[in-house]
Amino acid sequence: MSSTTIRPLRADAERTVRTILEAAERTLNRNPAATMEEIAAAAGVARTTVHRRFATREALITAMSEWATRQLAQAVDDARPDTSPPLVALYQATANVLRVKLSWGFSMNTSLAKGNESERIWNAVVDRCDQLFRRLQDAGVLRAEVDPVWARRVYYALIHEVCQDLSTTSNETTGSDPDTDALATQLIDTLLRGTGSPTAQL
Amino acid sequence: MSSTTIRPLRADAERTVRTILEAAERTLNRNPAATMEEIAAAAGVARTTVHRRFATREALITAMSEWATRQLAQAVDDARPDTSPPLVALYQATANVLRVKLSWGFSMNTSLAKGNESERIWNAVVDRCDQLFRRLQDAGVLRAEVDPVWARRVYYALIHEVCQDLSTTSNETTGSDPDTDALATQLIDTLLRGTGSPTAQL
DNA sequence: ACAACTTGCATCACCAATGTTGCAAGTAGT
DNA sequence: ACTACTTGCAACATTGGTGATGCAAGTTGT
Question: Does strand D come within 7 Å of the CB of B11?
């Protein structure tokens, strides 16, 4: 029920599927209106092959979304957000999520259709994050008067901003992986302390 | 040179143009792939009328972008970012920009084509903002070690987040204008102080 | 009132993208 | 080696959106 795949694919076909998904991500990230032709070209396969694996364009995008969302969920889970000390988990999760989001920016931004499997997973992730932010507040990391949901939203916005910048700036120059740990540190520093000096007040 | 309009339009035509621009904004904001037909319907005119005013779909979107960018520039200018005390200007600009961005979310997010008039205006606005953030730092509002460009980017991200939320949440329930001043206050508070408590540190 | 302008409607041509099929050549797994 | 699977290629049908045109009815401004 996870995918339209009925029976297991042969090894080469499986590889092709992943190649297509990755090529689609790259291509659609640059141009959301890219054609199946362009995606196929980017994957180095014929257009008919793409259609053999994904009946319609919509099916392809759904599959991308599902794939990306699963990876995101994994990234968060790996940080053990319910059991680790919350601030540690926040760091871990941030670095992990940045890694995923940098490669799957398009797929993560496609508004997930209602009733989708992706939507379920996504909501689970959001719940998990909200819970983490409540834990952060209980631990005194967040100020008491701050709405943890607002804090989580600011956090998302910062992640989005960092990814946005990275995918336009450094992707072209070097293929070297950006230092997600350093980015996570800067991000969380900004999230918690802001950019203002303690002296000047409103 | 501002638009493809050669000679002045009659009053009713002028009104039609603005009606179309607004309808296009609303429609494309909900669904970026909306057809000219849908846009025309939303504007309460025939599709041919839209094509009479905007030769191609691209021309329409360009016009929207230009229109929105001009309003944005106006919103920033009205805050007198070079002459007012920087923190005052920041408040003023934020409230103004929120008002504009809430109505023109789609048009502001369309990546402006190179060489566009919109791009020129947009760059001017960015320069203006960067300068404001340098003034903020000189005034001691921003911490000395913070990169003012990073601060500006965080600021943009927060604005985007606030607009995102508003356009999905409250637009459906009430037509009442959201309190942009209160939003600006919350936004700037978060920007400067973050969400963390002063005690807990990294 | 009159001329100029604008709009809706019906209709058309056009095209680019989508999705399908059959077949031949190549590859995976046993 | 043999079978089943996968892929590329070529060709095709379909369709939904785009853009254009001519005309009749209505509106604006003077």
Answer: yes
